[in-house]
Amino acid sequence: MSVQSTELDERDRADMQRLASGHEAALNDLMERHGPKLFNYLIRCLQNEEEAADVAQETFVRVYQNRTKFDTSQRFSTWLYAIATNLVKDRYRYRTRHPQVSLDAENETKGADFRESLPEQRPLPNETLLAEERAEIVRRAVSVLPEELRLPLVLSEYEEHSHAEIGVVLGCSPKAVETRIYRARKQLRDKLGWLLENSK
Fold first, then answer.
1. Taking each helix axis from N to C terminus, what angle separates 129-143 and 147-157, rounded to the nearest 10 degrees?
2. Range 85-92, long-range pairs (CB < 8 A, 24+ positions)
3. Considering all CA atoms of the chain, what is the largest pairwise distance in Å, rounded to the nearest integer?
4. What is the 3-state secondary structure of 80-114?
5. Which of 43, 44, 121, 27 is nearest to 80 (CA)?
6. Which residues does 31 contact at the CB level (< 8 Å), separation at least 6?
7. What is the pLDDT of residues 85-106, one digit of tens each?
8. Mean pLDDT across the chain, nearest whole number?
9. Neighbouring residues of 115: CB distance < 8 A, sequence distance ≥ 6
10. 3-state secondary structure (DSSP) of residue 72
11. How far is Cα 33 from Cα 36, in angstroms, rounded to an integer?
12. Residue scoring higher pLDDT (128 or 22)
C-alpha cells in the first residue's frame, strides 16, 4: 500500500472517530474526499445519474447512521463501497420487480442534489468522437453483464480495488472475485472482439 493511501486511511479513521464523538463536520470531509469517486462508481453500476446521486446520498446517510459501528481496523473506503454496493443491489432488485418504471423518470430529490457539490468534469479537447463511441460501446456491454460479474469488474477496473477488498465489499473470497472478473472479461471479449481487433 502506498504512503499516500496509508495517509488517506489514517485521515478517514480520524474523521470517523470525530464523527462518532459528535463532530458532524467530519462527514463533510469524508464526502469531499470520497464523494466524486463514489458517484462515478455508482453511475457505472446504475447507468443513471439521478439514481447514482440518490444512492450516493443514501450511502453517506448510512455512514452517519452507523458511525459508532465502524471498525477502525478496516479501511473506510472498503466499508463505504460495501454500503454503496448493497444499495446498488437493492436498486437492481427493485428494477427487476418494476420493469415498467422508466430509468429516465425524474426523481424528486429533497435538499441539494449530490451532483451539485461535485466538480465539473469536462472532456479533454483531444478526445475524439471515435474514442467516445468505443467507450460508449464498452460501457453498454459492461452494463448488460450479470450483476455478479459487473460489480467486481467495475470495482477492479474502474475503482482499482484489490481482489481482497472486493471480496469484503461483495461478501465472497478473493478467489471468487478473481473467477468472476475472469468470466466478465471473457464475456466482454466474446462480445467486443471485433472492436478490439479494429482498435489495434
1. 140
2. 85/45, 85/151, 85/155, 85/169, 85/170, 87/55, 87/58, 87/59, 87/62, 88/42, 88/45, 88/46, 88/55, 88/151, 89/147, 91/46, 91/51, 91/55, 92/147
3. 56
4. HHHHHHHHHHHHHHHHHHCCCCCCCCCCCCCCCCH
5. 27
6. 60, 117
7. 999 999 888 878 876 544 444 4
8. 83
9. 39, 49, 53
10. coil
11. 8
12. 22
Task: With CA atoms as reference, report the closest residue to 51 among 98, 19, 121, 6.
Answer: 98
How open is the CA angle 20-90-156, to the nearest 5 degrees?
Answer: 80
What is the rounded radius of gyration, in angstroms, for the C-alpha atoms of the chain? 18
Give the whole-angstrom CA distance, residue 57 versus residue 63. Answer: 10
* CA atoms of 183 and 139, how far apart (whole Å): 17
Residues 6+ apart with CB under 8 A from 74: 168
Q: What is the dihedral of CA 115, 121, 127, 129, to 10 degrees?
A: 20
Is the pLDDT reported for residue 199 higher than 90? no
Look-up of cell digits 474514442? 131
Please choose, from the candidates 138, 155, 140, 135, the residue with its C-alpha nearest in 3D space to the C-alpha of residue 193: 138
Whole-prediction pTM? 0.72
